[in-house]
Amino acid sequence: MCAAVYVLSTVTGYVLTSALLLKCPNLLHRKRRGHFLSRHISHRGGAGENLENTMAAFQHAVDLGTDMLELDCHLTKDEQVVVSHDANLHRSTGINANISDMVYNELPLYRCNLDVTFQRACICAGGEDKRIPLLSDVFEAFPNTPVNIDIKVNNDTLIKKVSELVVKYDRENLTVWGNASNKIVKKCYKENPRIPVLFSFPRVLQLLGLFYSGLLPFVPLKEQFLEIPMPSIITKLKDPDRLTRSQRFITWLADTLLMRKALFQHLTARGIQVYIWVLNDEEDFQRAFELGATGVMTDFPTRLKDFMDRNGISKPQ
Ligand SMILES: *[C@@H]1O[C@H](CO)[C@@H](O)[C@H](O)[C@H]1NC(C)=O
Ligand SMILES: *[C@@H]1O[C@H](CO)[C@@H](O)[C@H](O)[C@H]1NC(C)=O
Ligand SMILES: *[C@@H]1O[C@H](CO)[C@@H](O)[C@H](O)[C@H]1NC(C)=O
Ligand SMILES: *[C@@H]1O[C@H](CO)[C@@H](O)[C@H](O)[C@H]1NC(C)=O
Known about the structure:
Layout (H helix, E strand, L loop, with lengths): L1 H22 L16 E4 L11 H10 L3 E8 L5 E3 L6 H4 L19 E3 L7 E3 L9 H7 L5 E5 L4 H13 L6 E4 L3 H10 L9 H13 L11 E5 L4 H4 L7 H14 L2 H9 L3 E5 L4 H9 L4 E4 L2 H10 L7
Parallel strand pairs: 1-2, 1-10, 2-6, 6-7, 8-9, 9-10
Antiparallel strand pairs: 2-3, 4-5
Helix pairs in contact: 5-6
Bound molecules: 2-acetamido-2-deoxy-beta-D-glucopyranose (4 copies).
């Protein structure tokens, strides 16, 4: 008798959870209305086609019709918000100095060639534009293009200044910001809850816990963007022979746990966009869209655009 009740309640619970997860995810949560939806996202402006995070890169991506620019922010000594990936300028300019120790006008120019982090053995040869831009330059040049801002330092002034710029340029509805660190995302949210945030790494783990335990449909979420890597690309970035058995296993496990169509369907039905980074090959673009990702971040905006055109993956309305 007891066993029968147990089985019945388990089955009921399972059916209820599945129904809420996939069939009616909006029964408990009103669908969030985003102000933009991005399929084509240019990582650092498209680091494979122009020097990363330069105005030339952003202009090229916007000319191609990208839906969103992804970029990284730091603060200079004179408290200017600049668009640059690394805290230290050595890799990108050849000068061993930290951005936080230099005033904006002293910042060196980029090297002529930069490595592309997410494409093995690839160096990007830049054009004329080697300047590290201000965030305000980007906002001024592209007033209508959504921007994804990675806050690279846990610095309250940086967070405050970015929020001020977003407000000044009237972009609260055209921005998402955050970092893998939950401390930074919490500060961002506290500074200006009207700017959407992404899931930090600890929150991604929590999300997976909720998903696999069946609790996800019952839990409210403050984040509006899930931005995750496709773990399988690690085997392309590294020499496959140099990955140990356990590294290969962990990659496989992470890929299997994260790349879940049911998870993406549930989140997108709740109005949470899913972006996958950083994909540079057609087979990965295809896999991401087949899994139901909202958008793909790429270093090669032209390649992604060609793929989308050929496969009829349309620009969001
Ligand atoms: C840059 O900052 C890091 C971390 O704060 C520090 O360890 C390093 O010495 C600094 N580099 C230079 C060149 O000042
Ligand atoms: C934030 O950055 C500014 C400028 O680089 C620096 O002066 C300040 O000390 C930093 N604040 C913290 C809390 O690290
Ligand atoms: C952003 O969207 C909200 C909700 O639609 C609207 O009330 C608000 O005025 C918008 N903000 C700006 C700065 O356009
Ligand atoms: C997040 O911020 C940390 C500093 O707290 C920085 O080292 C890291 O590169 C950032 N990571 C991402 C993915 O933005």
